[in-house]
Amino acid sequence: MAWTDGHATRDLLAGYAAGTVEAVAVWSVEAHLTGCARCRSALSALVDAGRLARNRSVLLVRVALPHGGLVRRLLCRCGIPDYVLDLVAATPSLRRSWLLSVVGVLAVVTGEAATVKYGWIPVSGHPGLAGNPSPEALAPFLLIAPLLVLAGVAAAFLPMLDPAYRLAVAAPFSGIKLLLLRTISALIAASVPVACAALIVPGPGWLPVALLLPSLALCGFALATASILGSRAAAVIAGMLWVLPALLLATWHVPLAIVQRNAQFACAAVLCTCAVVLYLRRDRFEVGSAT
Amino acid sequence: MNTNVRTAAISADGLARRYGANRALDDVDLTLERGITGLLGPNGAGKTTLLSILATVNEPDAGSVSVFGLDPRQPAERVEIRRRLGYLPQELGYHRHFKVAAFLDYMAILKEITDRRRRADEVARVLTAVGLEQRAGTRIRALSGGMRQRLGIAQALLGEPDLLILDEPTAGLDPEQRLRFRELLSDLPGDPVIVLSTHQADDITAICPRVVVLLQGRIHFNGAPAELAATAAGRVWVADERDGRAHLSWRGSDNRWRHIGDHPPAGAELVTPMAEDGYLLLSHAAGTR
């Protein structure tokens, strides 16, 4: 008998306190407890203090954990496990401050190209004044845009930018898997503003697409080199590999050549080679001393 | 089947590690059983290097390690060791903008606890164990040094590890927190293998049934704290005045001079040595102090 004389029995209250009664019974007990001091005091004697403390701690933790906004819910809907999103959220280059600085730098180089093209700034001896397309005006944008993507990816894999790096190495979660999750999300996060800026910047319409392969090749090169020379050296060498030809082509007045056909083929070849190297040397990311 | 035959939980054989010209570890042989082992030594003795090798985050130049019969050089076995490991590095980095609970949640994912509900339960359990449950929503940058250290201990306890490697776990803890920490270690379920390093001998005598003294990359003592104390038997004296012939002398809390040496100072009284005396004598003999 669950109820006697309009009050809950000791067994029912004990079951409620232990969390073993059915949902319907829980509701009726709770409704009754709000108006019955006798049953409330009987219940408090039956509650396991240890369990109560544990439940309280769990509650405090659940409240403190991020519940995520629209983007997170959307990505979860797309089938990305929530723990992957939590792991990726620790990446420095996915933080708002980082993304804002990427947008800031892009705004400067895009603005520069636009002002030169539309002749807002008179440039003496410049061939592309008064509305004519000017390849030179694009040079700073072409130099900077893939570097921003590379910087985002480097920030995602450089051990010195991950304060909990040693803890991550000692954990069973695969190092290469964590690295790829972070770099791919950093790559996407940086590529979106770069592609948008490439649409705005005065230049050929295919520019947003043409920037994709060089950016990927640079990041792939940095990752593959990191497995051999260490992360910091890899990031620097990859950066130089873009800066030097980009500057050279700009001084020859053909800055666009860095993203045109031959360059695309070269980038595809680099990307494939690096993917193979990275696969072969993947175990180097599982131990702390190598990276 | 004879269940009395027990192989060592962890064994290290001929470990050596160099950093440039500096020999951090030099031919270290060590076996560890279940229970708490204290690793005692001055700064720079090689404690951190030894512990990071046992924790699979560092590789020795020579020698081999076996953890629960597994070889960390084999990728699959290394992951298996990490599944059973809780590690507190000496210099623990944090994502400072993280909240306490979010940091532990992140660590729990790295320890392969992917179910969200189970993770919250586990995070709550370790936070309660170190007495930080009220701070679950605090950002790490707002925590005091002692609280951060407790958070470091909490992350090492995630997943109820079978092997707990704690590098200077009591650094930054006040006396009351040290007592709670000692209680916490002795109450851990499942009789895990625990190795902790410290340069404070009183931590060792209070919690470790076994102590290993590491000096200049070599093991100089391996036994019970009482045996370490016994190495200084007949060589510890207390006197009112300082005696220059003693190897070491310092003024104690009773304002009298405690001497470690071979010659009794004038009017000195021979006292029962403590583990700290044995440790200091060993350090002196090794020429590290």
What does this structure look like?
The complex is a heterodimer of chains A (291) and B (289). Chain A is an all-alpha fold and 291 residues long. Chain A has two domains: 3-64, no CATH class; 70-290, no CATH class. Chain A contains 14 helices and two strands; from the N terminus they run E-E-H-H-H-H-H-H-H-H-H-H-H-H-H-H. Chain B folds into three domains: 1-84 and 162-223, 3-Layer(aba) Sandwich (Rossmann fold), CATH 3.40.50; 94-155, no CATH class; 229-286, no CATH class. In chain B, strand 6 (163-167), helix 6 and strand 7 (193-198) form a beta-alpha-beta unit. The longest helix of chain B is centred in the middle third of the chain and has 14 residues, at 116-129. Residues 1-5 of chain B have low confidence and may be disordered. Chain A binds chain B through residues 53-54, 56-58, 60-66, 81-83, 86-87, 90, 95, 162-174, 178, 283, 286-289, and chain B through 52, 55-59, 75, 78-79, 82-83, 85, 87, 89, 91-103, 105-107, 109-112, 114, 116, 119-121, 123-125, 127-128, 133-134, 136-137, 155.
List the helices and strands and how they pair.
The complex is a heterodimer of chains A (291) and B (289).
Chain A: E1 3-4, E2 7-8, H1 10-18, H2 23-33, H3 37-46, H4 49-64, H5 70-77, H6 82-88, H7 96-117, H8 135-157, H9 165-170, H10 175-200, H11 207-210, H12 212-229, H13 231-251, H14 261-280
Helix pairs in contact in A: 1-3, 7-8, 7-10, 8-10, 8-12, 8-13, 10-12, 12-13, 12-14
Chain B: E1 10-19, E2 22-32, E3 35-40, H1 47-54, E4 62-67, H2 75-83, E5 85-88, H3 100-110, H4 116-129, H5 145-157, E6 163-167, H6 175-186, E7 193-198, H7 201-207, E8 210-215, E9 218-223, H8 225-230, E10 236-239, E11 248-251, E12 257-260, E13 269-270, H9 275-286
Parallel strand pairs in B: 3-7, 3-8, 5-6, 6-7
Antiparallel strand pairs in B: 1-2, 1-4, 8-9, 10-12, 10-13, 11-12
Helix pairs in contact in B: 3-4, 4-5
